[in-house]
Amino acid sequence: MPKNSKVTQREQSHEHVTESVADLLAHEEPLDYKNSSLNVGGAAGKKVPQIEVPENDGRPAWNSKLQYILAQVGFSVGLGNVWRFPYLCQKNGGGAYLVPYFILLLVIGIPLFFLELAVGQKIRRGSIGVWNYVCPRLGGIGMSSLMVCGFVGLYYNVIIGWSIFYFFQSFQYPLPWSDCPIRKNGTFAIVEPECEKSSATTYFWYRQTLNTTSTIAESGGLNVKMTLSLLAAWIIVCLAVIKGIASSGKVMYFSSLFPYVVLFCFLVRGLMLKGSVDGIAHMFTPKLEKMLEPQVWREAATQVFFALGLGFGGVIAFSSYNKIDNNCHFDAVLVSFINFLTSILATLVVFAVLGFKANIMNEKCVVDNAEKIVGYLNSNVLSHDLIPPHVNFSHLTTSDYAEMYQVIKTVKEGSFSHLGLDPCILEDELNKAVQGTGLAFIAFTEAMTHFPASPFWSVMFFFMLINLGLGSMIGTMTGITTPVLDTYKVQKELFTVCCCIVAFLCGLLFVQRSGNYFVTMFDDYSAGLPLTVVVILENMSVAWIYGTKRFMQDLEDMLGFRPNIIYFYLWKYVSPICLIVLISASVIEMAFSPPGYNAWVEELAQERFQSYPPWALVMCFALIVVAMLPLPIVFIARHFNLMSDGSNKLSVSYRKSMMKDISNLEEQDESRFILGAKPGEAPASLAARKAYLAPGGNKPLDPNSLSPKSCYGTGYQNAAISPTTPTTPTTPESDF
Question: What is the pLDDT of residues 568-619, one digit of tens each?
């Protein structure tokens, strides 16, 4: 193409493209069309193969489809699948919880996951670039995603640091959390009182690992061990991200697959333990009445939402490195179901092990209370006639103790409470719900102390947590680096290193002695509400502003087939309604639940709920406001033309893919691009444009809706209108 052609001049400039195809061709210099690389038809009666613009024009790409799938699985499958899903399943009706979860996965999870994959793959940009081009006034969506990724990355890597510390502590026998430490007091040796009042694993977590303070107001200074662990975690993440997807993709081969190996090993080992079947049976015993409670559906929706990593930008960033014709619909369904099945597998493992632990604790309860009864018998507080003749205290079973307990309780009804006997019911132990750090660093570690070869299983478990966290952190960091590198001209390696250094310095907040309380604060407030707002705006911008009809046509052009009609209704109606209900429920819960945290009280050796002090409350709500602040700022700035709409930063790769799309459409149906009689005249409305119609519709799209001055930006425009065509923004759908 000549250097002074209008197309060439326009590509070298940063102005908006407003000319129609007719205008561009009308101003072109004559070409030898038969010898041109843009010739897609050739001589009459002779088909000449189309010469396509290469997609890999400088933007990195995945080495293989498997590498990409493992990266998406590694990002979506994280620590929440291991320590959050089992807790929700137990709390909300066992097997009955799986029903609302699966329904919401189909209604919200897969459609929105598919939407993010599609826009990232089509536009080939990070979250900032994608939403700038879909709707410039809502360009703050990408910036809010980046802010949330930053907040989550700060505390999420701290959890990886904790896992690294436990990983290295596991290389010793016996495990350091298997017994309480002994304190020497002169010639006497006594058990550490704080440990004796709680348990060895609880003491090791709160005192020897975190060395936590009793309130969030007491910083206590930096915890050196946790600071070094956090530094190691950021070094690992930085090395994995700094080389881009070529490096992080290879890391995913191990970090995504290794957790499944460990989970299967734990499942086989767990099923061989005494009481594991009790745990699994308790887990999947459905409590159907729970399904009628709105709280169960709200928590199921929230878990679906976060399990797939929606709104973080990592999904969009990973898919932006795909080929334009990749089947992202298959990817969305596959990754979603892998995520769901992983949660089921992790739940089986957790409750097989917790069932074993419950049996151990129940047997210990029986032994301790049997000793009390023997003491009462020897001191004549209880009569020997109360003990059934078949009971043998040297081999006391749980059923024998339960029978003896009921007899004593019936006979000594008036003074029974003074005896201090516990019922020792297995169901009570199984109902002790634990989640998060309480599950990973206390309950699970305590169960592993009873395993044969316990150090080996401990090493495997915490190495698995490191890999699960690493996969999610790579996706989170990619959600930060990709949009910035796409939008601004900065050196990739330098920017990544600077991000990691700044994040480590900010992360020192979480490795002071009160840092555990700040982790809880960020986990509760930095992501929940802002991410929900981000995703509903993503949904609305595509379904209602850009237009579901046009988006469905884009998908057909990109994938080679039209997605099922159900997606039209899910994106346009069902998902937005569900998300609005979820936001409303979250705000109501936040308004009525007192903001606070569980503090470890050293004197009592147990947790106590405490309300946040005023400065901490300000910090909580500042996290929400700061994360959502880019949304109104960008909207106002672009509404009053105070900020560029970002269209002048359209990537070369996307411009070439747009030209390729037009070329493909010409080959499929030249009549769709028949030009008007005069330059600038809009193309005629043809039957081919019926693909843009909604199901059962009969009204073609108004070509004016493709105006680059409308809210749709230039992101999905596969054609442009003439500058003489009115550019008043109109909606692409008749029922908007």
Answer: 999 999 999 988 988 888 888 888 888 888 888 888 888 888 889 999 999 9
- Rounded distance between C-alpha atoms, residue 89 and residue 414, angstroms: 40
Cross-strand pairs, 600: 607
Report phi then psi at 84, rounded to 5. -105, -50
The radius of gyration computed from the CA coordinates of the chain, to the nearest angstrom, equals: 31
Least confident of 40-49, 211-220, 565-574, 685-694: 40-49
Residue 372 · residue 418 · CB < 8 Å: no
CA distance 497 to 618: 31
Integer Cα distance of 484 and 488 in angstroms: 6
Distance CA 80, CA 471 (A): 12
**How far lies 277's CA from each of 265, 272, 274, 314, 424, in Å?**
16, 9, 8, 38, 19
The better pLDDT of the pair 246, 398 is held by 398
CA 90 to centroid of chain Cα atoms: 21
Given a cut of 60, whether residue 72 has pLDDT beyond it is yes
Contact 612, 620 (CB under 8 A): yes
Cite the annotated binding site for Na(+) by residue number: 74, 77, 81, 339, 468, 472
Instruction: Detail the residues annotated as belonging to a binding site.
Output: 74, 77, 81, 339, 468, 472
Whether residue 511 contacts residue 222, with contact meaning beta carbons closer than 8 Å, is answered with: yes
What does 26-73 look like in DSSP terms, one character per residue?
HTSPP--GGGSTT-SS-STT------PPPS-SSS---S-HHHHHHHHH
In contact, 586 and 532? CB cutoff 8 Å: yes
Distance of CA 695 to the CA centre of its chain: 33
The token pair that represents 87 in the structure block: 């807790």
> How many Cα atoms are found within 13 Å in the side-chain-facing hemisphere of 184?
2
- Kindly report whether the peptide bond that precedes residue 174 is cis, defined as omega within 30 degrees of 0: yes
Report yes or no: 369 and 361 within 8 Å, Cβ to Cβ.
no
Identify any residues that bridge with 512 across adjacent strands, giving them in sequence order.
222
Q: Which helix (H) or strand (E) holds 74?
A: helix 65-76
The structure tokens listed for 480 are 């930060």
Length of the chain: 736
36 in Cβ contact with 662 (< 8 Å) = no
Tally Cβ neighbours within 10 Å of residue 171: 11
pLDDT for position 157 = 92
Residue 199: HSE in the Cβ half-sphere, 13 Å Cα cutoff: 14
Mean model confidence pLDDT for the chain: 76
How far apart CA 403 and CA 385 sit, in angstroms, is: 14
CA distances from 646 to 139, 236, 609 (A): 9, 34, 47
Q: For residue 183, which phi and psi values (nearest 5 degrees)?
A: -105, 130
Instruction: Kindly compute the dihedral angle of the four CA atoms of residues 621, 625, 627, 633, in this order, to the nearest 10 degrees.
Output: -170
Query: What is the spatial distance between Cα 464 and Cα 271, in angstroms, rounded to a whole number?
Result: 19
What SS3 state is found at 608? strand
| 3-state helix/strand/coil string of 468-527 | HHHHHHHHHHHHHHHHHHHHCCCCHHHHHHHHHHHHHHHHHHHCECCHHHHHHHHHHHCC
CATH ID of 76-361+433-642, from 1.10.3470, 3.90.380, 1.20.1740, 3.30.530: 1.20.1740
Q: Which of 23, 16, 17 is nearest to 680 (CA)?
A: 23
Q: Where are the domains of the chain?
A: 76-361+433-642, 363-431
Percent of the chain with pLDDT over 70: 77
The crossing angle, in degrees rounded to 10, of helices 140-169 and 528-540 is 140
pLDDT score of 42: 37
In angstroms, rounded to a whole number, what is the distance separating the alpha carbons of residues 462 and 262?
10
Helix (H, G, I), strand (E, B) or coil at 124: coil
Residue type, 485: L
pTM value is 0.75
**Structure tokens belonging to residue 306:** 């976060």
Q: Contact, 460 vs 265, CB < 8 A?
A: yes
